[in-house]
Amino acid sequence: MTSFKPNKIFLDSETVSEQLRSARQTKKIKVETAAKKLGINPQYIYALEKGEQDKLPRGVYGKNFLREYSVYLGLDYDEIKKNFEKELEFLKEENDKNLFSRQIVKKHYFLAIPKIIKNSIIFTIVFICFSYLGYSMKKNFSAPSLFIETPMENMVTSEKMININGKTEAESQVIINGEQILSDNSGRFSEKINLKDGVNTITITAKRKYGGENTVKRQILVKES
Q1: Coil, strand or helix: which one is 76?
Q2: Residue 151: is the preceding peptide bond cis (ω within 30°)?
Q3: Given CB 3.0 to 4.6 Å as the disulfide criterion, which of 47, 157, 166, 212 pairs with 55?
């Protein structure tokens, strides 16, 4: 079975990691010895010698480790730095080219999932609260329903008294010809009204506590019997 070997960034020379590793091995220095001498975590020296730049600290710390290790091994830091930056640029270009072909899901994406779920739950709760508040305000300030069962419109009668029967929404006030009457818990009401000869206009109003109201009028003609 053929083993996988990464291609060198520069085919005509050693990479920076190879130069560092080769210089250390030539001097027969162990990684742990160099790390203790320089006060650098051994894992960063291994990262430098393996070309694993992503495992180095961000910013000046990574460059300082490279400088101190190069000087410690007796290498030309200016040359090392120049080649190191070229390799970083090359890797960046390669990563940009393969950005859409890679299917590696990084760890921080998983860490972001709980935050997304949390924000979604908060948004849903806020949306429900505002929706309920809007519904309650609309209900409180809109006109209540009002249905008059009797009398019918434009009724003609010889009676001097008539029953006003109807239904509105619970807790709504019912006013007939300026007089408030009682309604039951379901909003049903019934009231007897005296009539006079000729045309009688009856005004029935259902009104909410906060101002929304609905008015129905009935005209009744009373003829002499």
Answers
A1: coil
A2: yes
A3: 47
CATH for 146-222, options being 2.60.40.10, 3.90.226.10, 3.40.640.10, 2.40.420.20 = 2.60.40.10
φ and ψ of 98, to 5 deg: -100, 10
Total residue count of the chain as it appears in this document: 225
| CA 58 vs CA 48, 62, 84, 90, 160: distances in Å | 13, 6, 15, 18, 97
pTM attached to this predicted model = 0.38
Residue of 12, 81, 3 lying closest to 48 (CA atoms): 81
Q: Is the predicted pLDDT of residue 129 greater than 50, yes or no?
A: yes
Q: For residues 27, 31, 35 and 41, what is the CA-based torsion angle, rounded to 10 degrees?
A: 150
| pLDDT of residue 178 exceeding 80 | yes
- The pLDDT assigned to 4 comes to 33
